[in-house]
Amino acid sequence: xxxxxxxxxxxxxxxxxxxxxxxxxFMLSLPRGEAFISSLTIPEMRSxxxxxxxxxxxxxxxxxxxxxxxxxxxxxxxxxxxxxxSRHYTKAAELIARFSDNALRALDALHxxxxxxxxxxxxxxxxxxxxxxxxxxxxxxxxx
Length: 144
Hints:
This protein is α/β, with parallel strands linked by helices and 144 residues long.
């Protein structure tokens, strides 16, 4: 089983918050190399961590540790990164048009495009709209 993991869910692996324990168990249940992320996840994760420091959720040392562990997980193969290319942008635009009634945002459409292109069986996310569209596309979903 392979799973595309959206940044909103993945953050729970690096930041202790509601649902972190459940998400960690889920990630540990996936076969090594079967947790897919996109290259878009890298700046999104950095932005998320910086925002959480600004909000006072944790300090900059915690942020640096979380960032270091995230990069190590990519380097060690715990997360398989899929680089964005032109076909992902084209597919994202198609998804936005096709599911206009769901108010799918551009970056979420890019994530879904990558999930479809890598053949992931499942999508893990905390984003309700993304999960709804994934279900309409026939994907299994895990909400965190």
